[in-house]
Structures are given as structure tokens and as C-alpha cells.
Amino acid sequence: MSDNETSILCAAEIIGNSRYLCVSTGAGVSAESGVPTFRGAGGKWNTIDPEDVATYEAFSRDPEFVWSFYNDRRVNGASCRPNPAHIAIAQLEKRFGDNFTLITQNVDNLHREAGSERILEIHGNIWRVRCTCCNIEYEERTNPLPARPYCKTCGEGAWIRPAVVWFGETLDFDLLYRANKALESCDALLIVGTSGYVYPAAEFIVIAKRSGARVIEINVEETPNAGFVDAKVLGKAGEMLPRILSRITGEG
Ligand code: BJW
Q: Which pLDDT does position 252 carry in this prediction?
């Protein structure tokens, strides 16, 4: 049996024997759906500086440029569908019921499309916008949006912005509180497709470990979490998660 096969069995054993499962996902879980990651091969930040598109300062300086970046992603995102990793995570939620929380850094909505419901989108959602004048947030499916998108209530001159969390901005307090509670309550944490560079998500593993949880990581490469995980499954999320799930359900 290969080392990775052993890790898959170990991951299935940890999840299968746990009472409360927390799943934390990043861009890698959507890579197989055609959504580019931020870092690494093909990552967005290889060709564009996040300081130019993912900060409030950038938006204040040049909102049209920032919107062109998000419009491109919305246009690409509209044709992306959940992959077997999103679907396996939604199936795990069905198994655990209320003893399950999915914390995602992704803004692409693919977990919801796969059927996930107990989900905390800590970096927001690209299909939602917020008015910079009245602060109202709403779903906006017009795609692409005009080069100068304005609030549907306030009108001309009242810019809307993507309802996502940029660098230097604080995360929604209630979402972060609920994420921390779930991480403290879980006895297994499954981390999928995140580089582990961005805070506060980078600290989730510490919170869960401190509370006694066992940790599984699925990634195509090593991450800063290496020394902390109990089972490391090396490979694509869309291939590895269904294999782990079938071990748990006994169908594999
Ligand atoms: C696969 C795969 C496959 C590929 N299968 N795997 C403490 C210390 C130091 C700095 C800070 C700190 N606290 C806060 C900061 C500052 C900052 C930060 O973390 N900076 C770091 C870069 C050091 N954090 C913030 O500003 C946060 N705010 C905050 O903490 O408020 C309080 C505060 C403010 C200021 C100062 C101090 C405190 C907000 C962070 C917001 C991040 N925003 C973005 C953009 C969101 C909107 C958008 O989408 O446009 O969020 S940046 C980008 O990175 C995006 C992602 O959600 C996030 C994380 O990326 P992720 O998901 O990990 O993706 P990648 O691309 O990095 O990795 C993909 C992984 O998948 C790789 O490992 C691949 O190998 C793998 N993979 N294919 C499985 N098929």
C-alpha cells in the first residue's frame, strides 16, 4: 500500500470516528472547476499585484480597474460548476448534520451550488455587492456589470463594490465568531486546498489543535501546516475527497 493510500485510510478513520467535523477550504478546492488559484502555478497574484486590486486603497484610487478584475472573474465564474470535491463536502455535511461547519475563504459560491448549507463564507461572495454610500449589501447577478456600477437604490455616482474582504479589512465579526466556535467544538478538522498564508484563516489549525481536534490536509503540495497535521493526503481535492468519502461510507 502506498504512503498516500495509507493517508487516505487514516483520513477516513479520523473523519468516520469523529463527532463534529469542521472543513476549511481555499482556492485549490475550486481549481478543478476552472477557477484559478491566487498563488502557485497559474495563480492570479503571479500576473497582478493584490495591492492593485484587493485593497480598499486600490478601489479608492481606480474603481474601474478593480471592477474590470472582478468582472473578468465573474464572467469566468459563471461557467464554472462544482467539482467532485465540492460534492463530497456537501455529502459529508449530510452525514454529520448539525455537527458540521464548512468555513471557506472562497468567494465563488460553488460550495452552495454543490448543496452545502452550514457554510461560513469568511471572505465574502463575488455575486454580492455593497454600496459605498448606503452600505446596503445585495445579490447582483448582472454579468458583466457596467464599467462603472452604481447602487440600485442610491443611483448615479454611488459606487458599489464587490462584497468580498480585501487585505487590511476586518472579517465579519459574527462569521469569525461562529468559525472560532466551530473550530473549538470540532474533533476533526479537514483542510482542503489552501496555501495557509492568509490570516486569520491560517490560524484555524492552531485553534482546532489547541482544542484537541485531529487534522487532515488535502493539497497538491506541502504547506506551512506540514508539522501539525495528523494525515496529509497529497493530490487533487476532486480525486482524493471522493476516495476518502467512499472509505467512510464503505462503498469503496
Ligand atoms: C489544490 C489544488 C487541487 C491547487 N486540489 N489543492 C497576521 C500576521 C501577518 C499578516 C496578517 C495577520 N493578520 C492579518 C494580516 C494581514 C493579511 C494577511 O494575512 N496577509 C498575509 C498575506 C500575510 N490579512 C488580512 O488583511 C485579513 N484581514 C484581517 O485579518 O483583518 C484584521 C487585520 C487587518 C490588518 C492588519 C492586521 C489585522 C483579510 C484577508 C483577505 C484576503 N482576501 C483575499 C481576496 C478575497 C477576495 C477575492 O477573492 O478577490 O482572499 S486574498 C486571497 O487569498 C483570497 C483567498 O481567500 C486568500 C487565501 O488564498 P487560498 O484560498 O489559500 O488560495 P491560494 O491560491 O493561496 O492557495 C491555493 C492552494 O490550493 C495551494 O496550496 C495549492 O497547492 C492548492 N491547490 N490546486 C487541492 N486541485
A: 64
**Closest ligand 1 atom, CA of 123?**
46
Domain coordinates in residue numbering, the chain: 1-35+82-123+171-252, 41-79+124-164
Distance from the alpha carbon of residue 236 to the mean position of ligand 1, in angstroms: 19
Q: Strands, E, within 55-171: which ranges? A: 100-104, 119-121, 124-131, 137-139, 150-151, 155-164
Enter the C-alpha cell of residue 148: 462603472
SS (H, E, C) 135-158: CCEEECCCCCCCCCCEECCCEEEE
Options 3.30.1600.10, 3.40.50.300, 3.40.30.10, 1.10.3720.10; CATH for 41-79+124-164 is 3.30.1600.10
Q: Is the Cβ atom of 193 under 6 angstroms away from ligand 1?
A: yes
Cα of 92 vs its chain's centroid, Å: 16
Q: Is 235 in the pocket of ligand 1 (CB under 6 A)?
A: no
What value does the mean pLDDT take over residues 57-85?
Answer: 98
128 close to 139: Cβ distance less than 8 angstroms: yes
Q: Is 111 annotated in the active site? A: no
Please work out whether the CB of residue 237 comes within 6 Å of at least one atom of ligand 1: yes
198 C-alpha to center of ligand 1: Å? 3
State the catalytic residue, choosing from 123, 130, 161, 232: 123
Half-sphere exposure (CA, 13 Å, Cβ side) for 46?
Answer: 8
In this prediction, residues 39-51 reach a mean pLDDT of: 95
